[in-house]
Design brief:
DUF5683 domain-containing protein; signal; DUF5683; two-stranded antiparallel ribbon; mainly alpha; about 210 residues; about 10% strand
């Protein structure tokens, strides 16, 4: 009985050693030999230099003529957006600037009890009577117009800067290959806060297949 037990022990020992040796062979990763990459050719260097110039060129074109960089990047649907946005905000900024000036002049006349008979009795679409409004009301309208003027100037500047950045980034992204193995999704998100209020948001998911 002892001999049988000893033989069984030897059998398990040999089998365990074989299994352990096989695991070592499976987990051993062959180390690749060192390879020396050939230096880039003149043509490859020239192509890389041209590719590096594309984002700068697109940004410069959009800076000179908004939307031109988008055309250069072949994003034609984006091209009319910057000019339209700049025209609208530029027009509104000039319009509110003129209104600020008119309300200020009318307020100065009202404060000095000067003759206002030459002023409009139905100014703007709201139909403000500049001859009868008090100085306080005119100053309030002046402040509101000045605030809207500055707001449109800020939006105008933002659209102009975004137009340049968008052209620059799009030109860079042309170098990346986005294939079917990548997926990019934006989904609405609904979640409860403080166990009573329902809040909304967005979730961004990137999946690699």
């Amino acid at each position: 009985m002892k001999g049988f037990s000893f033989a069984l022990f030897l059998l398990f020992t040999v089998a365990a050693q074989q299994v352990f040796a096989q695991q070592q062979q499976q987990t051993t990763v062959p180390v690749p030999s060192d390879t020396i990459e050939p230096p880039p050719t003149q043509q490859e260097l020239a192509n890389k230099k041209i590719m590096n110039r594309q984002p700068n060129k697109a940004a410069l074109m959009s800076a000179i003529l908004p939307g031109a960089g988008q055309v250069y990047n072949k994003k034609y649907w984006k091209a009319p957006l910057p000019p339209i946005g700049l025209l609208i905000t530029g027009y509104l900024a000039i319009d509110y600037s003129n209104k600020t000036k008119v309300y200020g002049e009318a307020a100065s006349l009202a404060e000095h009890n000067a003759d206002r008979s030459a002023l409009s009795t139905s100014y703007t679409n709201a139909g403000y009577n500049l001859q009868t409004l008090s100085a306080t009301q005119l100053r309030t309208l002046q402040d509101d117009s000045r605030r809207y003027m500055y707001m449109n100037i800020v939006i105008f500047s933002g659209i102009y800067a975004l137009n340049i950045v968008d052209a620059y980034v799009d030109a860079h992204l042309k170098e990346f290959d986005v294939n079917e193995n990548l997926s990019f999704k934006v989904k609405p998100l609904f979640y409860a806060t403080n166990y009573s209020h329902l809040a909304t948001g967005l979730t961004l998911s990137i999946r690699l297949k």
